[in-house]
Amino acid sequence: MINVTNLRKTYGDFTAVNNISFEVQKGEIFGFLGPNGAGKTSTINMMIGLSRPTAGEIFINGIDVRKQTKKAQSIMGIVADESNLYNEMDGFENLCFCAALYGMEKDEREVKARHLLEEFGLKDAAKRSFKAYSKGMKRKLTIAAALIHSPEILFLDEPTTGIDVESSRQIRKRIKALKEQGTTVFLTTHYIEEAERLCDRIAFIAKGQIVASGTVTELMDSVSHGHVIRFVTSKFAENLTAELQSNFEGSIATIQSDNTMIMKSEERIPLLPVMNFLHDKGIDVYEATELRPSLEDVFVKLTGIESSVLKRDEKKGGRK
Amino acid sequence: MRSRIAFWNILKKDIKNYYLKPPNISWGIIFPLSWTLMQLIRSPGENVLKLLPGLMAMSVLFGTTSMLAVTITFERSGRSFERLLLAPISINVLVLAKIAGTVLFGIFNAFVPIIFASFFKDLRGVNFGIILPTVFMIAVSSALMGLLIAVSAKQVFEAQTFSNFFRFPMLFLCGLFVPISDLPVFLRPISYLLPLTYGADILKGAVTGVNTLSPTLSFGMLILFSVVLFLISRHNINRKWIL
Fold first, then answer.
1. Percentage of chain B surpassing pLDDT 90?
2. Which of A50, A74, A85 sits opposite B80 (nearest CB)?
3. Residue B150 belongs to domain spanning
4. Whether residue A269 sits in one domain with residue A131
5. Of A52, A82, A85, the CB nearest to B242
6. Do A169 and A245 fall within a single domain?
7. What is the pLDDT of residues A231-262, one digit of tens each?
8. Which residues of chain B neighbour A86 with C-beta distances below 8 Å?
9. What CATH code is carried by the domain that includes residue A200?
10. Confidence of residue B231 (pLDDT cuts 50, 70, 90)
11. What number is the average pLDDT over the span A160-186?
C-alpha cells in the first residue's frame, strides 16, 4: 500500500529526515514512534503532499505522490497534529464542508456526516460551534472529517496528543475498527503504550532515521538475549548462589533479600528442577515469572533515547 | 464535477464565515460611505460625478485586498487552510474559489458610493454596461494583490501592514483623486505599473465620458495584470506553502 524509498528532507543545513525506507501493507496499522523533532511530522508531510522530499520516492497504492499528488490525496484521509477544523462552523457543517472538498454530492455528504457524528458520539454536539468543543471532541471530529470520503488510507499525526483518557480510548477503539474494515492506517506517536496497543508494526525513529522496525514481538526479540525468571520464595535463599549455578549449568543466579531470586540463562530454564532443588533446601516457590523487556526498554536500548524524553513530550502535549 | 462542488462550497463557506459577518458588512458600507461624505464635504461645489470613479475604485481596492489577505492569513495561522491544500483539487481551483468571495465583496463595496451618489445626482448618463465589467476586473486584480500579500504574511497584523503599504500610495498614484498628469514626472511611470490606474480610467470614462487612455487598452491591461498576478500567486503558493 505504501512504499517509501530513500526518503530525505533537508532544511538548509538541517536534515529532518535522513534516507529512510519502509513499506506498509494494506489493512495494516503502522506506527512511527519517536520523540518530538525525530522527523515523524516531516515524513508524514512528505507522504501526504504538504512538503516536497529533497530526495527519495513515495508510492501510495501504486501512485507516485511526487508526480500525482492530487490523485494520491483523493484516497487519503489526513489528520494533522492539531485539530484544524473551522471554528466558525458547527460539527455537522465542518464534516459536510470536508466532504465537499472531495467532490461528494450534498445528499451523500449529509448522510455520511450524520453517520460519523453518531459513530464518534458527537450527535448531540452536531449543531454546536467547533470552537465550543472540548479538546477530545475536537480531535474526534477532526478524525471523523478525515474519514468522510471513506479513504483507503488514513494518516494520523499524533492522534491522541493532549486529550483526555476517555477520548483517547475511544479514538484507539475507532482506529482498530477501521483496520478491521480494511483501512490502512499510518500513525505517528510519542506514546509507547499507544504504539504497542494499536500498531501491527512499529518503526522507531530518531534524528530522522529509522533505528528499528517490526512487530512488537520482533522488536523485543531483537534486544532480548536469553531468558530471565524471577522466583518468589518462602524465605531468603541465602548462600545458595554457587550451588544453584553449579547445579544448573549456564545459568546465573542472583539472590535478593526480599525473598526473590533471579535466574538468567541463554537456554530456557526448566522450572520443576529448580523448584525441587529449592524444596530440598526447605524453601517453597510461590511464584515464577518470565521477565521480558518492555517496549520502553527496547526503545531505550535501540535508540539510545531515554524514555524520560518521550514522557517529557507527553507532558508538553498536555495529556490529562 | 469534483472541482465544481469544491469551488462552490469554498465560496459559500467564505461568504458565510467572513463576508456576511456584521463587522464586515458594516465595514463594507461605512468605509466607502465615509470617504464619499468626506469628499463631498471637502469640495461642496464639485460635481459628484467627478468624485464617483475614484471612490468606487478605492472602495473595491480596500475591500478586496484587506479581506482576502486577512482571511487567508487567519486560516493559515489556524491551519485550517491546510485542508484546502490537501484536498484533491488543483491550486487553480483553490485560488479562484478563494478570490471569488472577495471579488463579490469588492463589487458590493463599489456600489455603495453609487447608491449614495444617486441621492445627489441623476445617474442616467452613467454607462453601467461598462462599469460592471470594470468593477469586476478591478476586484479580480485587487483580490489577487491581496493573495500575493497573504502568501508573504504569516500573521494577520503582517497582512494588514503589507496591505497598507501597497494601498495608500495607490490612492495617489493611480489617478483616483489627483490626475496622473498632475503628479511629479518621476512618479508617473509607477502609475502605469499599477492595475488600478487602468480600472480607474475606464470608470472615469463610464461616469463622466472622459478617458485618458483607450478603454480597450485599459481592459487589456487589467486582464494582463490579473493573469500575471494569478500566475505569480500560484507559483508562490506552490513554493511557499508546499515546503
1. 36
2. A85
3. 2-240
4. no
5. A52
6. no
7. 999 888 778 888 888 888 888 888 887 889 88
8. 13, 17, 80
9. 3.40.50.300
10. very high
11. 90
A314 — pLDDT class (breaks 50, 70, 90): low
Contacts 24+ apart (CB under 8 A), B174-178: B174/B57, B174/B200, B175/B54, B175/B200, B175/B201, B175/B212, B176/B53, B176/B54, B176/B55, B176/B57, B176/B58, B176/B200, B177/B39, B177/B51, B177/B54
A51 touches chain B (CB under 8 A): yes
User: What type of residue sits at position A28?
Assistant: E
DSSP for A252-298 reads EEEEETTTEEEEEESSPPPHHHHHHHHHHTT--EEEEEE----HHHH
Closest CA to B204 of B112, B113, B130: B130
The verdict on a CB contact (< 8 Å) between A101 and B6 is yes
Mean of pLDDT values over B181-200: 91
Q: What is the pLDDT of residue A319?
A: 39
CA distances from A152 to A64, A159, A185, B5, B52 (A): 16, 18, 9, 21, 57
Partner-chain contact A100 B90, CB within 8 Å: no
Give which of A50, A54, A101 to mutate to test B binding, by max B Cβ within 10 Å. Answer: A101
Nearest CA in chain A to B237: A50
How many domains does chain B fold into?
1
Residue A256 near residue A272 (C-beta atoms within 8 A) = no
pLDDT band at residue A310 under the 50/70/90 scheme: low
Task: Say if A21 is an interface residue toward chain B (CB within 8 Å).
Answer: no
Q: Is the pLDDT of residue A70 over 50?
A: yes
Q: Which domain holds residue A277?
A: 226-290
Q: Are residues A216 and A234 in the same domain?
A: no
CB-based contact B39:B51 (threshold 8 Å): yes
Least confident of A219-223, A292-296, A305-309, B26-30: A305-309
Whether A318 is covered by a domain: the verdict is no
Residues A103 and A66 in one domain: yes
Calculate mean pLDDT across residues A146-170.
90
- How many structural domains compose chain A? 2
Residue with the three cell numbers 499507544: A194
Whether the CB of A45 is below 8 Å from some CB of chain B: the reply is yes
A16 assigned to some structural domain: yes
